[in-house]
User: Fold this.
Amino acid sequence: MNTVKQIPAYQRVLMVDPQHFDIQYSINPFMKDEHGNLKKVDKAKARQQWNALAETYRKLGLDVVVIPGRPNFPDMVFAANQSMPYWSLDKNVPAVVMAKMQSDFRKDEVPFFTEWFEGEHYSMGEITGEPTMTFEGNGDVSIQGKRPVIWAANGPRTSVEVAEALHKLTGYEVVSLRLQDPRFYHLDTCFSILNTDTVAYYPGAFDSADVEKIKKGFSRQIEISLEECRDSFAGNCHSPDGKHVILQQGSPKFCAALREHGFEPIEVDTSEFMKSGGSVFCMKMMAY
Assistant:
């Protein structure tokens, strides 16, 4: 792994106001019930859950920045997908790569985030290549703590060519992973970097070669069971400071493993957002 340079920690949490959150279409396995109908969102409950998550970040000392939600973009609240903020090694400034969303329902969310990053004077970048190439931001890529290393997944939402494109654009080392289970359509559903040395993941989402990459890349690996990853979205947990791990309630085995490794789990309720296929990690973007 590239250990020549260390990158600074994020200081802010970017979230999107849930005013327009709803389920109006189906683009993942979670958005319909057992009868094939779109699930119904309790908007008042969703607001309470979103507020509680934002307050959790504030209590950990992080600045929460809120972008307004927009009509006709019910999934915009999942702020992990529209971009990949990173630290530019060449310019020594905050930078960002904007997403190229796979779903037509979500493509037009990206300009609202572009506007925010431009207003914050980020160095702007985008994936170039074939017009059909797709890239869903931090839904499918994750930076390894203080190391300039990107773990990049390809599969249902992000093209395999993105890994090389990100390497050329950022200068970071990029480790490519292949998602092989349709239930885990984004990397952030089954793989969460807790700090520079530690990752939590569900091994069954990857083939044996990629599991070996993960084991070589992190000195500590915490395995998540299929049941807790699938039913309680444990793989969509988030550690904003390398010490605390915020996650959906209902994963006692994973919480015990976190404590054994010195982490403090903080359980929250994101059940309304889980109806749309997202939980803690999906609902925020770490930024400078």
About this structure: The two ends are 24 Å apart (CA to CA). The first strand starts at residue 12 and ends at 16. The chain has seven helices and 14 strands. Residues 43-59 form the longest helix (17 residues).
